[in-house]
Amino acid sequence: MALNGKADVVIVGAGIVGLATAYRLLKARPKLGVVVLEKEAGVAAHQTGHNSGVIHSGIYYKPGSLKAQNCVRGYRLLLEFLREAELPHEICGKLIVATDESELPRLRTLEERGRENGLDGIRRLTELDEIRAVEPHVNGIEALFVPQTGIVDFRVVARALLEKVQERGAQVRFNENVRGVHEASDGVELATDGRPVQARFLVGCAGLHSDRLARAVEPELPLRIVPFRGEYYRLKPEAKHLVKNLIYPVPNPDFPFLGVHFTRTAWGDIDAGPNAVLALKREGYGRTDLDPGDLFETLSWPGFYKLVQKHWREGTAELIRSWYKPHFVAALQRLIPEVRSEDLEPAGAGVRAQACGRDGKLLDDFELRRTPRQLHVCNAPSPAATSSLSIGQTIAESVIAALA
Fold it and tell me: What is the domain count for the chain?
């Protein structure tokens, strides 16, 4: 295990990616000394704990990208873990619906991507009767049925991973905020709210704060986390019959969000959303939550203004949907015309840790950054939960090679 008080690996962040990394490390090298530091009182406090619970298939992602590779492999690894741990889940499939002729080329591109990424059983539905055989209340001109998509409670998955890594000897320390990082030739030292931690290697899985942790050793990091809040409504019990499983629109390829959609969750709700609005606080789940320091970091990043110049129309539409419920409802009615405002009640929100480059582009792929003794996950939004065990395996292989 740890030698002379120094761990082999310290992982910052006990969300699903950090825990999956610890799990894959200890599965490959059971005698490694692993310490996981988490600033909150428990696991899955932020992105993982506010996840809608969709097990993604990999249909959206550019073939060959890290998202495509890790989502497809992660899907398989996740299902293996769920079965072995006997965790409840369901593979129910989802419908991606085109409601306008202009969306058809993008729908066909998605079908091609899905097949290139190795998905079997994708069906194109070209008649309304075919579409409504899957989802009886949907309106659309064409759709793709993707059978591999499923639902799970990722909070339950995170707790199961916690048990597994603790059983294998990992130390998991809660309420431990990392205040500083120093890298030397033989390892790293972390200053925390508790006692300092020394390790031969550091893995940063800090989610909404990943760029801050990485900048401790890479001051000129060419990206910043720009937090986006995604707000949900929930269908009231009397309206649940309108949705059987998962119903998505055709996404805008220039904007890395999937658009408002309907999700049957593993805990029995039907969620509608999310939108995507700039959060004024990195952990700001309410519309009026504000942290001046977080907001200053966003506004002072040169890429933010280029982002606004490029996407101000989409941003304005998302903001209007946030504050004016009829516009949110209108977006949902494109998919299910029968939905009414009175069918919906507020259902909370999540915050997406979205990396933005200096050029104003929102990074569309996972981003891992290396130094000799550190590896930081600097961009891992959706489908990171589905991909977590695959990302963890990739990181584990890199760390083991560095420690050899």
Answer: 1
Cβ count within 10 A of residue 316: 11
Distance separating alpha carbons of residues 390 and 66, to the nearest angstrom: 10
Q: Which uninterrupted H or E stretch holds 62?
A: none
Q: Which domain holds residue 391?
A: 7-48+155-222+365-403
pLDDT tens digit sequence for 240-297:
999 999 999 999 876 668 889 999 999 999 999 999 999 999 999 999 999 999 999 9
| Cα distances (Å, whole numbers) of residue 133 to 57, 141, 211, 263 | 21, 14, 46, 18
CB atoms within 10 A of CB 100: 11
Taking the C-alpha atoms of residue 123 and residue 143, their distance in angstroms, rounded to an integer, is 8
* Distance of alpha carbon 80 from the chain centroid: 20
List, as one string, the DSSP characters of 297-318: HHHT-HHHHHHHHHHHHHHHHH
Evaluate whether 230 touches 403 at the Cβ level (below 8 Å): no
As a whole number of angstroms, the distance between CA 58 and CA 65 comes to: 11
Judging by DSSP bridges, how do beta strands 261-264 and 270-273 pair with one another?
antiparallel
Question: pTM, whole model, 2 decimals?
Answer: 0.96
Select from 400, 6, 1, 397 the least CA-distant residue to 200: 6
| CATH number for position 372 | 3.50.50.60
State whether residue 386 is helix, strand or coil.
helix
Dihedrals φ, ψ of 368, to 5°? Answer: -115, 130
13 assigned to some structural domain:
yes
* Residue 178 maps to a domain: yes
Cα separation, 255 vs 252, whole angstroms: 6
